[in-house]
Amino acid sequence: MKITTRRLALCAVLTALALGLSTLEGMFPVSLLIPLPGIKLGMQALFTGTAQLPDIRIEAPAHVICTETVESLQAGAVYGAAAMTDGLVERMESELGRPCTAVVTGGLGRFVVPHCRRRLVYDEHLLLRGLGMIWRRAQGEIHSCGAMGNAV
Questions:
Q1: Which residues of 82-101 are buried (b: 16+ CB within 10 A; e: fewer)?
Q2: Residues 10 and 23: beta-carbon distance below 8 Å
Q3: C-alpha closest to that of 3 among 86, 101, 93
Q4: Which of 47, 49, 69, 106 has a Cα at 20 to 30 A from 97?
């Protein structure tokens, strides 16, 4: 996947829901990070902080409004993360005055992305590939433009 945009909203759905914005205005990159508890961290806080709530599998029930405890917890976790992602990207775009490309990464993103209302690019391993590129660049295998060079 190649991203060709000057504005990128990146949402990592991991232990925490980290939403960042990278924009290149002229030659100066601008970044921000909004850390929020992720699905598992939020659910773990509920399970350990209460005596009666069960541990659940992360999956989306058929409806947001549910009558059973397990389905209600699942709906809150999945649809809540989707709504946070949609809402924060929308607010970023509003402040920027134009749209940006929204990319979701992380293993739990596969549960969230199908329930977002906006178009998102999902790439589960984006973070790991990026770390690999940084390592290879440090080893002299990749030039700053991203092209492969001679291995050292």
A1: bebbbebbeebbeeeeeebb
A2: no
A3: 101
A4: 106
30 three-class SS: strand
Render the burial of 3-34: b for 16+ CB within 10 Å, e for the rest.
eeeebbbbbbbbebbbbebbbeeeeeeeeeee
Place of tokens 């996947």: 1
Residue 21 pairs with which residues in a beta bridge?
A: 9, 32
Express each pLDDT in 103-147 by its tens digit: 888 888 899 999 999 998 898 888 888 888 888 888 887 665 555
Whose CA is closest to 71, among 81, 62, 83?
62
